[in-house]
Amino acid sequence: MMETMTQTADRLLNRISVSTCSFTTAAGAIRTLKENGFRELGLSDVDWQVKPGGSYFINVNDSTVYAFFIGSRFDSGQAAEPGQMLRLAASHTDHPCLYVKSKPEMKSHGYGKLNVEVYGGPILNTWLDRPLSVAGRVVIKSGRVFEPDVRIVDLKKPLFTIPNLAIHLNKEVNKGVELNRQTDLAPIACLGGDEIGDSFFRKMIAARLQVEETELLDYELYLYNCDAGDLLGMREEMISAPRLDNITSVEACLQGICHVGRETGISGILLFDNEEIGSRTRQGADSILLSEVLEKLYVSLGVPSGAARTAMRNGFALSLDVAHGFHPNKPEKADPTNENPLGKGVVIKRSGAQNYVTDSRAIASLIMLMDHAGIPYQKFASRSDATQGGTLGAIASKYVPMRIVDMGVPVLAMHSSRELMAAADQMALEQAVRKFFSEE
What we know:
Elements: H1 5-18, H2 22-35, E1 39-40, E2 55-60, E3 64-70, E4 87-92, E5 97-108, E6 111-119, E7 132-140, E8 149-154, E9 188-191, H3 200-209, E10 216-225, E11 230-232, E12 238-241, H4 244-257, E13 266-272, H5 289-300, H6 305-313, E14 316-320, E15 323-324, E16 346-349, H7 360-373, E17 377-380, H8 392-396, E18 403-408, E19 410-411, E20 419-422, H9 423-436
Parallel strand pairs: 1-2, 4-13, 4-14, 14-18, 15-19, 16-17
Antiparallel strand pairs: 2-3, 3-13, 5-6, 5-10, 6-9, 7-8, 7-10, 11-12, 12-20, 16-18
């Protein structure tokens, strides 16, 4: 039975609540995959024991996840043929936030504060006066030098905040204030800064992990907005929540790969880290790792390397990321003939500059698929006098040059600590990905 819009929204909000940084997002995705029968493949394993009808996932450095379903009628001798088409859907696990520096503790006039740096491109003032928590990866001393103990941690409660300066002390605040990233964004962690010791943050993390502070060797920790998401609007038709960019797409990928309907070819999802800072990492999209993994997967299924490369080039991918929705208070910011209001369906992105790699042939295939299923969609173009963003599709296509469509749900307040979307658009996106993985 098809779930209701409210059920879809509630499931998304549950996903957002446990997806607080790239590490917890990846961990949550892996839990879902295991619950649906996916088996882990070791990235460094020499041989992969895979077979048609099998479901597999790969954990890449704890913050990126690849998952694949091999159709029960996969034919290694015809792997490069259209009937065995490789189909992929990609999204990203990270979001703009605040990154905790090494030795972050600062004490000032009785306050304990944290030294942080900005990760990605957030709307900075939306991070003020918010309840903030911390999540990420912590590395603990072990008995083996090259295999330290790795823990994924999420404190899951409000611990920090960055207070605004009162209007009485800054009477020009409503004219706009530029925030200094070093001095204005230091969160308050506690009071009694003179008595709490010099390593109060590290002590807290060590206590949470039930280890001695001296055992804590390093970490990659992020502050996140721990507000709960909400349904709002007079008909509860909108979703207001942190991290809609890009957990909306992560959830759509997971829904698609866990409900694959096709029995031929390989279907896969790619949940990449570090998109918000350019993807230039081994776990990001700007890496040869994906092409190596795909080739190894094909070879493990008995496909010669040359045929595997051909199969990859003949594949089709969806690059899923949020799109700019039409803002009713700023209509001049939208392209005059390509408005994308919330609630009108999935947005297909195009760009002459190839910031989005969608081309007409790929769009035609996607439109036929969506029209056949009655899935609403709209097309996006930036104003000609505006800057354009980039997506995973343009980056990944350098290494796996297949047909790609850039698409996603329209949102307002993109890169705010809290964003806004239509629940109906999430339903449309998930239906589109499921249809993409089911059409023979």
